């Protein structure tokens, strides 16, 4: 099976590439903006016609789109998450390759959820920010394209390579700095937020399964379990061997500040570290998100395998290398 992977150098794309390369039945071609891509092509500015000619030459059976942007203004997010998807869909419609499309969406398309609930694929999307809006627009383009296509709505990916700007990436970096300088107290913000954290390697397995399946439409990829960032911080501290106190500063709307971890050290040992985003919920998802993952189980035969502690251990291993 010949697979064309778009965005192979991104956070998710790297693990998807590794998973596909481990399958001897897959012939992989990577297309992207970086020099190490097999073919250089910018989906946000390239023409559908140019991509069509490439598809006709390579003739893939599956196209996997991991490309996109998570940061930037509305215009930039629209270029990379919406316009780029329109280019892919139009090129596939024009091409004679008949490839199946696996598009990576995200949980930000749903927006805030009712605390305690599990979000299923039939939930009405109400994205709470420009990122979710741009990704939802890309999903709608795929669903309306008439192509053989599936959209995987990935919840909160974690594990090795977690971006430093993500909540767990910022947390690991703050802890690394505290341990490096011998600080006995770490002050953090927004620890009451709850997310469905799914390991990036499990996401790659889901992409592989989706490329082999006949399933279409939207499929959630998560664990089905929401975890407080406060609890993830406590696990990370245990994994890291950090014996200081973790104090919560501004927990965001409707969330009570609290204290977790070891007892408060002496005043001379205290140095405040703030590891917070400018907004309480920068992903536009509110205080709670949890995936209903029954569709992935039933239609893809996929279940998550890697627990959060293992994911956090891998995040910490990378952070510790910078000490």
Overall pLDDT: 90
Largest sheet: 7 strands, parallel
**Which outline best applies?**
globular
| Order of SSEs | EHEEHEHEHEEHEEEHEEHEEHH
Low-confidence stretches: 251-279
Helix tally equals 9
Straight-line distance between termini: 43 Å
Helix content, binned percent: 25-40%
Strand order of the largest sheet: 3-2-1-4-5-6-11
Total beta-strand segments: 14
The gyration radius over C-alpha positions equals: 20 Å
Strand content: 15-25%
Structural class label:
alpha/beta
Task: Report on this structure.
It is built from nine helices and 14 strands. The protein is α/β, with parallel strands linked by helices and 323 residues long. Strands 3-2-1-4-5-6-11 form a seven-stranded parallel β-sheet, sandwiched between helices. The protein has a three-stranded mixed β-sheet with strand order 8-13-14, with helices on one face. The chain has a two-stranded parallel sheet with strand order 7-10. β5 (100-106), α4 and β6 form a beta-alpha-beta unit. α2 crosses α3 (74-94). The longest helix has 21 residues, at 74-94.
């Amino acid at each position: 099976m010949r697979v064309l992977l778009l965005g192979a150098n991104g956070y998710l794309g790297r693990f998807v590439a590794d998973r596909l390369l481990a399958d001897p039945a897959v012939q992989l071609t990577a297309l992207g903006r970086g020099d190490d891509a097999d073919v250089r092509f910018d989906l946000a500015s390239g023409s559908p016609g140019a991509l069509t000619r490439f598809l006709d030459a390579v003739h893939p059976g599956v196209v996997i789109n991991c490309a996109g942007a998570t940061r930037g203004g509305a215009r930039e997010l629209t270029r990379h998450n919406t316009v780029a998807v329109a280019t892919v869909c139009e090129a596939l419609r024009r091409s004679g390759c008949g490839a199946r499309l696996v598009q990576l969406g995200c949980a930000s398309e749903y927006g805030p959820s009712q605390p305690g609930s599990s979000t299923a694929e039939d939930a009405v999307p109400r994205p709470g920010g420009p990122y979710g809006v741009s990704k939802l627009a890309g999903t709608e383009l795929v669903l309306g394209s008439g192509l053989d296509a599936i959209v995987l709505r990935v919840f909160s990916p974690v594990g090795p390579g977690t971006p430093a700007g993500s909540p767990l990436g910022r947390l690991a970096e703050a802890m690394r700095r505290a341990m490096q300088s011998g600080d006995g107290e770490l002050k953090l913000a927004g620890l009451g937020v709850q997310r469905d954290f799914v390991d990036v390697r499990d996401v790659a397995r889901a992409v592989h399964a989706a490329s082999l399946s006949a399933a279409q439409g939207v499929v959630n990829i998560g664990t089905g379990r929401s975890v407080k960032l406060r609890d993830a911080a406590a696990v990370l501290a245990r994994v890291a061997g950090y014996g200081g106190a973790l104090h919560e500063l501004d927990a965001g709307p409707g969330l009570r500040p609290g204290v977790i971890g070891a007892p408060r050290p002496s005043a001379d040992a205290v140095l405040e570290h703030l590891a917070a985003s400018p907004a309480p919920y920068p992903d536009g998802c509110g205080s709670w998100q949890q995936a209903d993952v029954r569709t992935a189980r039933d239609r893809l035969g996929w279940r998550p395998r890697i627990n959060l502690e293992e994911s956090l251990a891998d995040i910490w291993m990378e952070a510790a290398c910078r000490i």
